[in-house]
Structure formats: C-alpha cells, structure tokens
Amino acid sequence: MSDDNDGSGALEAAGLGKKYRRGWALRDVTFRLPAGRICAMVGPNGSGKSTLLALAADLLTPTTGTLRIFGEAPSAPTTRERIAYVAQEKPLYPRFSVADTLRMGASLNPHWDQTAAERVVDEAEVPLSTRIGSLSGGRRTCVALAVALGKRARLLLLDEPMSDQDPVRRRRMMGVLMAEAAERGTTVVISTHVLAELDGVCDYLLLIGDGRIRLAGDSEAIQSAHRLITGARDGSGIDAHTVVERRTTGRQLTALVRPTSPVGDDWIVREPSLEEVLLGYLRSPEAPPLVTASARPVAEDGAP
Amino acid sequence: MTALSRDVPRDRARRTTRTGGANGVTWLVRRQYRTMFCTGAALVVAIAGYIVWQRFAMTGYLRDHGIAGCADWKATCHGEPIPDGRGESPVGDAFFHISDVYRPRILATGRVLLALPALFGVFVGAPLVARELENGTHKLVWTQSVSRTRWLTAQLALPLAAVLTGSALLSALYTWWWRTARATTLTDIAWGTTVPFDASGPAAVALTALSFLLGTAIGLVVARTLPAMVVTFGAIAGVVYGLAALRPHLMPTRTMVSDADGHFGRTPQHVFYTSWRGMADGYLTRTGEKVPGDLCSGADSSSAMHRCFARLGATGRGYVEYHPASHFWPLQWIQAGICLAAAAALTVFCLWWIRRRPSGRATA
Fold it and tell me: PROSITE patterns, per this entry (chain A) (predicted)?
C-alpha cells in the first residue's frame, strides 16, 4: 500500500480482450481496482473470470488492450514478485510432501514468509509430512493458498479458492486470508460463482458476464446505486429509471432499478442487499452495465 | 582484521539472497528428479560394472592364452603361426574363443547403450515440460518470482549434466572394451555402423544430449506427455538412421583396388583389417571408372551378373571404398559436433518458445 502513491491501481485494464480459437473470452474490459481492496469477481461459469486472472498472472497475453499491475505489465520481472496466483485447478506436485511444497515456495521467492505459509497449513490441519497426492481437494487448495500467502505478494489472484471447501474450513481460510490481507494491505481478487462465499468479506465487486464487465466498483456504491421497488402491476413511470430487472407476482410488480431521479410515492422503495443486486444482473443478461467512479481508470477520470 | 571478518559474512549473506532464486530452481529440479536420478545412477553403475568386468575377463583370457597384443589376421602371434581353422592349435582356438564369447556380448551391450539416449529422451526429455503443461503445474511454477527462462534453464541443465556424465563414463568404457577386442579379432565388425559407433566416444555423449533436447522441444510443442513420448521416440530413431546414412560421407573415403583377378593382396593387411569397409564397392572399367556393385544387384544368377558387369564395361579388377582406422576419431568428433550443434539449436528454440508461449495466439 505504501508505494501505491503513484496513483496506479493494483489492477487496471483498458480495452482488454482475449480471443481463443473458439471465440472471444473477454471483450473490451475496462476497470480499475484500487490497491488494498478485497475484490469479489463474480460471474457464471465460462464468463471469462479465469481468463482475466490468467492474463494478470502472465499465463496468457491479451489479444487487445492492456492490463497493468501496480502500473506495470504482467510480464515485467517486478510484477512476478508482486503477484501470487492460485489457478482454478490448484496445481501442485502430487509426489511432493506439504513441507516440500512450501520449500519450493521458499526457494522460488525472495520474500518468502514460512510462518505465514505454515499458519495456513496448520489452520487447515494438514500435517507437513503428508504427500500432496493423498490430500482431499479442499486440503490441497489450502496448501495452494499457503504457497500464495507465503510469497508475500501485494496482489493475490485466487481463482475459485473456496469452491471445494466445506463451510467450516471455508470460514477459517477466509479468516486467515483476510487477517493476512488486512495486516499487510494486500489487494485480493477472488473469483467465484457462489455469491454467499464472499458475503461481508469483499468491499469491491466485479461482475463479469459473457466476457464483458457488467458491474465494477465499491460494493457499497453499487449497492446504494440500486433500489428495489414494488408497486402496481402496470408499472407506470418505471421507465424513467434504469431498469435492471422486473418481475410480476400477482398484481404486483417488483423491479430492481438504478434511479435517475427520486422514485415516486406510489412505489414501496428499499435498498437491496448486494446479493439481490447480483442476482438481478445475473438473471438479466441484457441489463446495462454500471462502472462506479472508483472503478474507472485514472485517465478517464481526468477527462471532462 | 576485525573489519575483514565483519565484512565477509555480510557479503556472503547478501550473495545468498541475491542468488537465492537460482539455487531455488536447482533445489526444485533436484527434488523433482530425485527418483529418476537414483534409478539412472544405479543403471549406469550396473552397466559400467558389467563392462569393466567383461573387459578384464577378456584381457585376462588374452594374457593367459598368450595372445595378448596379437591380431588374428596376422600370420603369427609371438612367433607361433595362427591357423585359419578351428582345432588346429591352442593359439588359433584362443582367438575363436574370444570371438565366440565376446562378439555377442559386445554387440548386445552396444545395443543397450544405444537404447539409453533414446530412453533418456523419451522418459526424461519428453515429459520434462509436457507433464507440467498437461497437469497444469506450469501455472504454479511460472507464477513464482523466478522467470520461466531461468526455470527452463535449470530444468535442462541439471538432468543434462547428470546424464552426460553417465553417458561419458559408459561410452568411454565401452569404447575401451570393444576396441581392444577388435584389435585382436572381430575384424568383421564394421566400426562405422550404428553399433558400436553411436555407443562409443563423444558421438554417444552428443547423441544423448540431442535426444534429451529433442524430447524437451517436442514436449514443449506437443504439450501432452504420451504423444510427446511417442513422437520423441520416432524422432530419435530417425536421427539414428539419418546419422548412419550420413556417416560414410562425413569424410572423403579412400579406395583400395584389387589385382586383375580380384585379390586385394596389394593393400597392406593392417589397413584392410582395421578399416571400415562396406559403404561402396564394385569393379573398375579398363579406363579406371567405378562400376558400383549395386548396379548389378538385380541379377539373379552369377552368369547374369557377369553379363551385367561385362555390359557396363567392368573388368575383374575390384575396388572397395573404406575409411581407414585413422578416420575413427575424426568421424566421432564430426558426428558429435553435428549432434551438439543441433542440441544447441533446440535449446535456443526451447528458450524462445517458452517466452513466446503466452502470446501463442496471434493478436488481432
């Protein structure tokens, strides 16, 4: 956090696109993640979350646009030390013991923190002498997380880190992760397709659908930009606002909107939960995207 | 003195942090190939032990039977005549014994040694990167602080250094064994053929390096372990066949010419028996032009062959192209040079490919 005074975000994408042989996985992705945030990257399977993280980890190169990590390209040697990445399939060497795996982390990284890595492994109750190949999926993920945390990176890129964890271990792992992140001001990006996983943990949100950004910004700003309104079925006056989703139940109409002006008195208005906002967008792929001020690249901010 | 003793540890501490990464990759490679290294070392020691044992058993026999330093194509051995047939004298039978016992052992060992580079290329070279790409562990190692160039350099250098040491030891011992045997008897073993040539001297070591790099490069491009292994095996077999076809032409051959009745009596015996013959032979015309023997290989009877050669103007004067014994080491080094150059080119290719890989798809 201390050397983030140059104003560049932890992660900044401009016109980022990635095309595979079968088509575009990401298109025209532009956003900025300020340093020190815990960012939830949400989206259905195959929406491009893994591609975005792999681009940041320099395992892929963009087809279009650029991606900057603390102002530098993902391929820069300094960036390699600054990021830690856990791939979705949590690859580790199956014949290594847990201790060997941490030793590998120590020998490949100049700022290795053995204590931090061992804390994660302890928390997951994985003995150091166990072979990786004999661990359950959830425990193996913990070892992968331990390697990522031991690296002492400034940006953690975690691709579905909690998908194979039972609820108890998930809470514990998130606890360790958040404590480490808070202590060092680490920026964290966690991709997931299970919203409940990140409830109350993240303060930043990135919703990706079909390779495009649909929501980006402070979770609070996103939440407060929306209203859940209920009223008569004919829904007069609703089109004055940006409608994300509308549903009718009986004689009632419920809609998730981004109000452009005060909502009229003939509606019951309340602020939706973050999960309600996300669900609304996930159910309506055509809803217009929203990028809050803090998620806009710096250059764009300066423009009139 | 105090200043000195204070400076030294500080300097050392700084150096360990700076080179920590490089040592680190070394540790990783050592850990990854621990089992394979032990297996390989055991194999090398076993084969080396066998060769040393056989070589000493053979020279012991030569000494005990008074034929050490003799050659069976000479007329006499330490003053005793060497007969042509079996059972005529103990000296003659001693030569036959060496030939009967050690000829199959030397050729079989040579085939085993020839298989080693192929095994190494297929089982170490091909999976080296292919397995990482297949299992996704490249996503783990390539996202650590060490660059993938340095990672690959260590992945290539360490196994290569280990195996070249083993290969150098085995090929030296093997060369030492068969050349002693061939100097005594076994003169019909063409030393320029794949066995023993590719299992001997610097050529064997360079072939090992080439096989490994071939496997790694194929694994890097194919990115799947089993197909990479299969392709590598085919590629190494192709290299060995290619080298066998190329070898006679690496140096200009010499030609020995017979009398008008087909006897090569004019050629000194030691030249004849120590040379590598068999790459080309035939008959000369009256004007000295060569009529290669394979022009008439289609003839199905000796009279048909006579008519064929007569039609081509051949006389009874035969010729044989050969590489003299003095060509053995130059040919070894030339072939080694070719293999090492190819291995170096493949190394450059691998290092280039691994840096290029993330941008594998064209930018639109």
Answer: ABC_TRANSPORTER_2 (PS50893)
C-alpha B61/C-alpha B185 separation (Å) is: 13
- CA–CA separation, B226 vs B247, rounded Å? 31
Q: Give the chain A residue whose CA is nearest to the CA of B135.
A: A91
Q: A153 and A85, same structural domain?
A: yes
Cβ atoms of A138 and A195 closer than 8 Å: no
SS3 assignment, position B336:
helix
- B143 with A85: Cβ contact below 8 A: yes
Measured CA to CA, the distance from residue A275 to residue A143 in angstroms comes to 30
Smallest CA–CA distance from B17 into chain A, residue = A110
pTM recorded for the entire structure: 0.86
In a shared domain, residues A196 and A262:
no
Question: Do residues A50 and A83 share a domain?
Answer: yes
DSSP E strand stretches across A163-277: 187-192, 204-209, 212-218, 227-232, 242-249, 252-258, 268-270
Instruction: Tell me whether residues B145 and A57 touch, CB distance under 8 A.
Output: no
The domain that holds A180 is classified in CATH as 3.40.50.300
Q: Are residues A113 and A248 in the same domain?
A: no
With CB atoms and an 8 Å threshold, state whether A151 touches B364: no
Would you say residue A105 lies in a domain?
yes
Q: Is residue A185 part of a domain?
A: yes
State how far the Cα of A278 lies from the Cα of A216, in Å rounded to an integer.
11
**Are B137 and A92 in contact (CB < 8 Å)?**
yes
Same domain for A212 and A81? yes
Statement to judge: residues A46 and A177 lie in one domain: yes
Q: What is the residue range of A282's domain?
A: 223-288
Q: Do A196 and A283 belong to one domain?
A: no
With respect to residue A149, please indicate whether it lies within any of the assigned structural domains.
yes
Domain parsing of chain B, residue ranges: 31-251+329-358, 254-325
